[in-house]
Amino acid sequence: MHGPGSSGWLLVALCAATGAYCLLRMRSGVEEQRRAAGGEALMGFGMAAMAVPAAVFTPPAWAWPLWAVVFGAAGLHALWAARASARHLHHVVGAGAMVYMAVVMAAAPRGAHHGAAGTPALTAALLLYFTAYVLVTGARLVPVAAVAGGPGTGPGAGSGTRWGDRPELARACRLSMGIAMVAMLMMM
């Protein structure tokens, strides 16, 4: 969060690009994918805004409580959606992490946005969760040798799937946000 120069800008670029791709995924014909993509777009753009280097822009004091409210509402929405699918629990944890970071930043002295101290145990727990999430999601992206003659192995395989509906792209999107979350938590 408000990391030093080049690493902060890399986080901004990664999160903004991920948020933009998630906005495009909201055009999907699959309702569940549209819903997930909306939450992920909010998360991507929120993380991009939080990662802007403090030397360039220091948000006003009222911005951090506003972020906490926005991501608190997103977390409640994800918790409500988790009734139908446990996949939404990750969104609850992500929104909770964003609320936590916003609260820590609100409590930090003005201008001390890099290395603001939160609760070490909570920061460590979130770091462990997101590190495990990144490793599991990354492992799911590793291609598995396709069985010869199986579905998706012939010429033109996947040509009927729109690029915004491809599950591997959605996983890559989630992986990049997980990596960014690890980096942001490490800066706390």
UniProtKB/TrEMBL annotation:
It comes from the Bacteria. The chain crosses the membrane at residues 6-24, 36-56, 62-82, 89-108. Signal peptide: none annotated. Keywords: Membrane, Transmembrane, Transmembrane helix. The keyword Electron transport does not apply. The keyword Cytoplasm does not apply. This is DUF5134 domain-containing protein. It comes from Streptomyces variabilis.
